[in-house]
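Subject: Sanity check before I submit

Could someone independently write out the structure tokens for this chain? I want to compare against mine line by line before I put it in a report. The sequence has 256 residues.
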Amino acid sequence: MIAFCAFVRKEIVELIRNKRLIILLAIFTIFAILGPLTAVLTPWILETMSDLLESSGVTVNGITITVLDSWTQYYKNLPILLIVFVLMFAGLFTKEYARGTFELIISKGMSRNKIYFAKMLTVLGTWTICYIAYFLISLAYNVSLWDNRVAQHWGIAAFLYWIFGVYVIIGMVSVSGFSASVSGVLIGTGVFAVMPELIGILPKITKYMPTQLTSGILILTGSIKPNDRIESIVVTAILCFVAGGIGAKGFSKKQL
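---
Independent answer below. Compare away.
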């Protein structure tokens, strides 16, 4: 356990040293501000362009912006942020493979499972920190600029997307246990993230898919209840454990 904690600490120090954590926090903060800002500026932009739009046959009447418009931007930005996050960590294992660092660490008595799960924990911790920052900044603007009581179960809706992010990141780490190239990790992660959406085309199993956790705006507007996502949460949790286990198995047998 001491060795595991020491390795996690080393990973955290490296995150800070190479400024990856700071860069991610900056990106998440910028997008957190852009969401409410976009909602606030939309009426002004449309009013400015009203003459041009009218000449095209489009009439712009008075537009009322509510907190739901800001929350809509919140969820529109999240796929971009998740992609950026994956891109930043796609080389988590591949760089170590190329440098031969894993061989050195293992020769000092560190087990492969500890290395694998320490890296997973570090990445999940980073995702959690960045996501909380994004959520709290967005919430602060939404509460100060609009009546946030209009939005229903906003905390639960945001939490569900965090779970989906965990699902994607565990998939990325799992693929990293097998692939020695960044491109392989990105392709594998993309398949892992998109496959449920493709399978979810079948009506009877749609409600079980992890991608259902991304529909936070439906919860905010009251179109669905949080309980409607219980099946998705259970399936996502199972897939996370399975993917994590498969990745650990693959890493334990991978030739370094």
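---
OP: Matches mine. For the report I'm noting this point. The chain has eleven helices and no strands.
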